[in-house]
Amino acid sequence: MHWAAERTSTSSISALSFTFCCGDGRVRLPAFQPLPTYLYSLHSPSAEAVRFRTNIRSYDSAFAFTSIDCTPTTRGVGMSGVQVLQIHGALHHRNGPIEETGEDSLPSYAQLYFHDPQYAASIRAQRNPHLDERILQQLTSMLCEVNNPYINIYRTAKERLCEAASNDTRVLLTSNLRFTLETGTDRRLENIPTSDEVAAVIPDTAASETCRPIVLEARNSSALFRITATHPTYMPLHYILMFPCGDSGWHPGLTLSENSSRASLKLT
Fold first, then answer.
1. Cβ of 54: how many Cβ atoms within 10 Å?
2. Is 74 part of any domain?
3. The domain containing residue 105 runs over which residues?
4. Angle at 147 between CA 234 and CA 197, to 5 degrees
5. Is the pLDDT score of 21 beyond 50?
6. With a threshold of 0.90, does the pTM exceed it?
């Protein structure tokens, strides 16, 4: 969104042109991978596609790895007009334990990706009775078929935590998707071997001291770890159907392309 006064000096009110957002053409975003065939079909006029688009936000939330944390307000509730969610303060994405915390508790968020796809789809349908279970099953299978990297990354993290078999062990996932095992009260760090890590389309330049790693723990019901908004996975871990192939979101490692030398300069 821009103010009219932010238009370029050569544009007019009837033909607005803005270059602030793209750095006058110097910001070159990597192209997204093509949509998976099934997800593309849900943009058609078919009855199934219409049902999907009617509840598209609920479908996307059903597949999220992370939860949302905010403080809603009741200001304006009950008034005429379009009803919108209003919050007070900041909106955060949080990452919880990767194992269920109780014997009778059902898996949720990232925990669902460690189960059989058909079972995971049935749990999503149980939690969202207004959604079409067949569509949920198809979307679950689709994410496995396109090899969404975060599914394998979380599975690898869980394997590492199971191998460590300690309540005082956790996995740190850095901004360039490298694993670090953190153990003991002194928080000793140990780099996890990368032989079976999943390749991800995030450059090393994405790493930043101001970008805190994602914390993954096996069981800790009292802790929900906040994901910093500058982490490349901030968007794709929550809006799965917008990033089905795991394309990275905005991060400080994005570069500018100078027309004169074509040299890459950091965006921030």
1. 13
2. no
3. 34-69+90-266
4. 75
5. yes
6. no
